[in-house]
Design a protein that fits this description.
Helix content is 37%, strand content 27%. It folds into two domains: 213 residues, P-loop containing nucleotide triphosphate hydrolases (Rossmann fold), CATH 3.40.50.300; 66 residues, Alpha-Beta Plaits, CATH 3.30.70. By secondary structure, the protein is α/β, with parallel strands linked by helices. Helix 3 crosses helix 4 and helix 8 crosses helix 11. The radius of gyration is 24 Å and the shape is elongated. It contains eleven helices and 14 strands. The protein binds adenosine-5'-diphosphate and magnesium ion. Adenosine-5'-diphosphate (ADP) binds next to strand 2 and helix 1.
């Protein structure tokens, strides 16, 4: 018995009689906070999520939500789900829709009605409360989807690419609300995205999948530490001269990127590099444009992980 909020064990899903191996034996845990579920298009994110909410069956393996079998009534009572392509009933106002969804989630009408109003206020949709959702903008529809996932006061919400198809402002709104859900309400958020850079800012932990397999699974801080490798960016006019000098002094551990006017390196000795850089530039009688430690992004982490991965086809 475990107290993980989500736990999968060798979770697997094939399509077309095994021709498409969408999810290949993935095992991971979600233990609270904001947990990013990342990977490029076609990686298997939506397929995994659909198994977690019981929308499709598993080919093999196991998934549990709050210790209950994924897809069971007990598990689903505690989770809210915003699908990749949410379906709204034609001609329903936001108020009617939210109350309807609350009723489906087992709430008495009066309670659903109160909660619907609260959510509309919280999401700044109160002016649109009695308008047809069909007439909403993409951003408003996504908020309606958000509200629907929250109506029955779940302890976990699963959002499948909630920021896709939104403009920058719409995306920022959604991510703000995700932060509030976790920070103010203590709800665990499992959020998928193919845009690693936006999850960077909000997630506490991430599971990254590619071609149906997990490539990385850890908290963000640890991942960045593992992969950062103390990278420095140096910009100067004659970067070739500088590079020769750095090599001569054995200051280079690894060169990540070399282009006219700029290099990105991991020094062999960080302290020494920082000390020597001003001296080298004085000696070379050269102007230094920039010398800075490079912030590593989740995108970089992903690229490194995928390039290190062997391409076995099991
Ligand atoms: N119903 C289905 N029938 C056949 N193949 C599918 C089906 N659903 C998904 N796939 C395939 O499984 C893979 C993973 O898809 P999906 O889980 O939607 O990826 P993601 O959500 O990460 O973009 C893709 O190759 C996709 O074409
Ligand atoms: Mg998807």
């Amino acid at each position: 018995m475990t107290d993980a909020i989500i736990q999968t064990q060798k979770l697997t899903r094939h399509f077309d009689n095994g021709k498409v191996k969408a999810v290949r034996s993935i095992s991971f845990e979600v233990n609270g906070g904001i947990h990013g579920f990342l990977g490029p298009n076609g990686a298997g994110k939506s397929t995994t999520i659909k198994m977690l909410v019981g929308a499709i069956s598993r080919t093999a393996g196991d998934a549990k939500v709050f210790g209950y079998r994924a897809g069971s009534v007990a598990a689903n009572a505690q989770l809210g789900y915003l699908p990749e392509h949410p379906h709204f009933y034609e001609g329903m106002t936001l108020r009617d829709y939210l109350i309807f969804m609350g009723r489906l989630g087992g709430m008495p009408r009066s309670e659903a009605s109160k909660k619907a109003m609260e959510l509309a206020e919280w999401l700044d949709l109160i002016d649109a409360f009695d308008r047809n959702i069909s007439d909403f903008s993409a951003g408003m529809k996504q908020k309606a989807g958000f509200a629907q996932a929250l109506i029955h006061e779940p302890n976990l919400v699963i959002f499948d690419e909630p920021t896709a198809n939104l403009d920058a402002i719409g995306r920022a709104h959604i991510l703000d609300n995700v932060k509030k859900l976790s920070g103010e309400l203590g709800i665990t958020v499992f959020i998928s995205s193919h845009v690693l850079s936006e999850i960077d800012k909000v997630a506490d932990a991430v599971t990254i999948i590619n071609k149906g397999k997990i490539v990385l699974d850890d908290d963000i801080k640890t991942l960045k530490e593992i992969f950062s490798g103390n990278r420095y960016i140096i910009r100067a006019p004659r970067i070739d001269l500088l590079l020769d000098e750095l090599k001569k002094r054995k200051l280079i551990g690894q060169i990540w990127n070399e282009e006219p006017g700029q290099i990105e390196i991991t020094p062999s000795d960080e302290g020494l590099l920082r000390k020597e850089i001003p001296r080298i530039f004085t000696e070379l009688d050269m102007w230094l444009d920039e010398f800075k430690r490079r912030e590593i992004s989740l995108e970089d982490v992903f690229m490194i992980a995928v390039s290190q991965e062997d391409d076995s086809d099991e």
